[in-house]
Amino acid sequence: MPVVMLRSVGDLLRYIDENHLASDFTAKVEYCQSDWVLLRSSIETFAVTVKEIAQLLQGFGSELSETELPDEANAIEFLLHSHSHRYRQMKDDIRGVLKEGRLLLSNLETVKAAKREAEEEREIQADMETVQRLLAQLRDMEEAFDGFFEKHHLKLQQYLQLLH
């Protein structure tokens, strides 16, 4: 493949259609590298956060399922209180991440609405689908976590009633 040395934008336009160049080269395509980097890093950060939440939920679920039940009522009451407190904290974390994801999705929708080129729109649509998939995973994890905790909490309450 030959290498071509260019001296000006005019030289460049002999090889590339100006409709495919960014406005940095006095062309018609609106493109901002910093915006792209910001969106890309936001999506990647969100994906990592969803993964971290999954690991936290897995760890907490394992801890709950491995909890040995003490023989004293006040110890069971303490477990009920401490597990419920941690559950509420994790629920708050999940809600915060869901809110972050919805905001990211809203920002992507705004960017998509401003795009004129079909290719750019397809790229943004793919990013939106990624965020939607991550949000769906997070909601599914939350639902499974809620069900698991509800059963665990009920088990502790029933055990406490047996001790009374």
UniProtKB/TrEMBL annotation:
Superkingdom of the organism of origin: Eukaryota
GO molecular function: guanyl-nucleotide exchange factor activity
Record's keyword terms, sorted: Coiled coil, Guanine-nucleotide releasing factor
Family matches, as InterPro entries: RhoGEF_Guanine_NuclExch_SF
The keyword Coiled coil belongs to this UniProt entry's keyword annotation: yes
UniProt keyword Coiled coil present: yes
Coiled-coil region list: 108-144
Gene Ontology cellular component annotations, sorted alphabetically: cytoplasm
GO BP term, pick one: dendrite development
PANTHER family for the chain: PROTO-ONCOGENE DBL-LIKE ISOFORM X1, RHO GUANINE EXCHANGE FACTOR-RELATED
Protein name: MCF2
Organism, as annotated: Poeciliopsis prolifica
UniProt lineage: Eukaryota, Metazoa, Chordata, Craniata, Vertebrata
